[in-house]
Amino acid sequence: MDKAVSNLDRVIIGIDPGTNMMGYAILGICGNKPHMVAMGVIELDKIGDHYTRLGRIYQRVTMLVEQYCPDEMAIEAPFFGKNVQSMLKLGRAQGVAIAAAISRQVPIAEYEPRKIKQAITGNGAASKEQVREMLRHILSIPQEQMHPKLDSTDALGAALCHYYESSRPQLPKGPASWKEFAARNPDRIKGL
């Protein structure tokens, strides 16, 4: 286990899947304060064979999981584009990253890019650069510690989005209809 995470209450690994470049980030939580532990990219574009790239993704994500011992993984869902072959390759990359985490019993949460942008910037249509700057501000990351590749900050955004989503208090679910309410609460509707 990396010393940077040994005293944390919770560790979340964020993944921005890709077949040319995969972003990753480690978000540490101490008390209720998140901070960036590490971020980077797994460069895959120099590997010619798609299946070898998938093997490399599995190997590197497994190594990250073993190094940082995350409690959860937050992964960005594939963006639905027009190119079916690109979507298939991206889905495979995402699946391999998920399999690497599952092989180490790390629970997975998946978020659409729009949901991540909304959670970080308040705007689901924000640019990657806006997400990057907002993350830098929220997590107080000095400019020199920011990774130059936006894939890494996309991964950090997924991890922070998951922290926000999983830290919200869960309200009890109310009845689905008036009929269900009446069935659950007959004493409250007698005089109506």
Structure characterization notes:
By secondary structure, the chain is of the alpha/beta class. The chain has a single domain (3-188), classed as 2-Layer Sandwich (Nucleotidyltransferase, domain 5), CATH 3.30.420.10. The chain is built from six helices and five strands; from the N terminus they run βββαβαβαααα. The chain has a five-stranded mixed sheet with strand order 3-2-1-4-5. It starts with 9 loop residues before the first strand and ends in an 8-residue tail after the last helix.
Compile the SSE list and pairings.
Blueprint: E1 10-16, E2 21-30, E3 33-43, H1 50-68, E4 72-76, H2 84-102, E5 108-111, H3 113-121, H4 128-138, H5 150-167, H6 178-184
Parallel strand pairs: 1-4, 4-5
Antiparallel strand pairs: 1-2, 2-3
Short descriptors:
single chain, alpha/beta, five-stranded mixed β-sheet, 5 strands, 43% helix, 19% strand
- As a percent range, the share of helical residues equals 40-55%
**CATH-derived topology:** Nucleotidyltransferase, domain 5
The tally of helices reads 6
Portion in strands: 15-25%
| CATH architecture annotation name | 2-Layer Sandwich
- What value does the average pLDDT take? 91
Strand segment count: 5
In CATH's first tier, which class applies?
Alpha Beta
- N-C termini distance: 62 Å
Number of domains: 1
CATH superfamily placement: Ribonuclease H-like superfamily/Ribonuclease H
What order do the SSEs take from the amino end to the carboxyl end, as H and E?
A: EEEHEHEHHHH
